[in-house]
Amino acid sequence: MSRSEILALVSVAFIVGLAMALVVRVPLWYATDSEDTRAATTVVPTSQVTAKRWRVPVSFPTNLEVLGDNIIYVAGLVDSLSAGRFQFLIAEPKEIVPEFQIVDAVRENKIPAGYTWLGYDQGKIPASPLLGAVPFGLEPWEFSAWWFEGGGAQLGQELYARGGVHILLCGLIGPETAGWFREPINSLDDLRGLKIRFAGLGGKVIERTGASVTMLPGAEIFQALEKGAIDATEYSLPNVDQSLGFDRVAKLNYFPGWHQVFTSIHLTINLDEWSQLSAQEQAILETACTAGVTRNLAKAEAIQGPIIADFANKGVTANYLPESVLRELNRLSDEVMEEEAANDTDFRRIYDSQRAFRADYAHWKKFAYLPRDF
């Protein structure tokens, strides 16, 4: 064999050896002093990572703008932030869980998570409505400040952790309407004897006026109102109520929404499921829900004006409750709140926290903003 042929063979062998070394070489960022660690370390392409898919039932139909569709926005963020490795499969009301039983299903781990209004838990957790809506309570941005910066999240999560549930504030809207009525409301006497759909602590207040209160899911209200099973109703924002057809039956829409000055909606997660999430996955849910709060309130505020402006074309009248009625409702609300606080230590602790925050905030609120009629 000639010298040139020998050199050629050596060169080929060198190239083949180098290529093989690169193929079997362990990447530098996986190198350790432990052979066991090296053997256990594998690279899994993103496309091969098993996606986490959670079935998430909701209390409100997702075709209801603002009230129902916010979870679609949140689910999209969870999908995007996780690069498709964490997904929500949204289940409409009653599809797998009744509207008022979502937290129970989460607690029992029948579902990993749900999107709901915590006021529906009032019968089992007396303090829960304070996290969902409070008569004459914090305005939306005040509630948000209390939740994120005033200790609200800690109090709420402690309350629900006892039942094996972790909660994240995930949606927030402004005041509801005070209700849809067939006859004018000029005094509390006009409420006496009325059959009315109401929810939460506001329902307990209205009962004290002599009204007969019933609790119905949103999808059942129109039929009850149309057939006369109820005389009046409250439910949500003007755009939501109009979507459900209340304006076709009751033509007097009253304001302000004294009973739900804010309405917050939470993502409820089974505590064991939450604990098993990675820090990154927990951060994704917290980030998506916080963004959901901001976008939800923005959209809610943006679209109500045109709805009310069109009332006249539908034969609907927007009315402001007389101040004398509001004062009496405020007095009755204070009575209800104090009685609830006296009967439940959790209610007392959360209610006192909200009142203390509101008192401190008032120093800023009094001077910072222009009068609303300016």
Describe the structure.
The protein folds into two domains: 51-173 and 262-302, Bacterial extracellular solute-binding protein, family 7 (D-Maltodextrin-Binding Protein, domain 2, 3-Layer(aba) Sandwich), CATH 3.40.190.170; 179-259 and 310-343, 3-Layer(aba) Sandwich (D-Maltodextrin-Binding Protein, domain 2). A three-stranded antiparallel beta sheet has the order 3-10-4, sandwiched between helices. Strands 5-9-11 form a three-stranded mixed beta sheet, with no helix packed on it. It has a three-stranded parallel beta sheet with strand order 7-6-8, covered by helices on one side. The chain has 374 residues and is α/β, with parallel strands linked by helices. It has helices at 3-24, 35-40, 70-81, 102-107, 140-149, 152-161, 200-207, 218-227, 238-243, 271-276, 279-309, 323-343, 345-368; strands at 52-57, 86-91, 113-116, 165-173, 179-181, 195-197, 212-214, 232-233, 252-255, 263-270, 317-320.
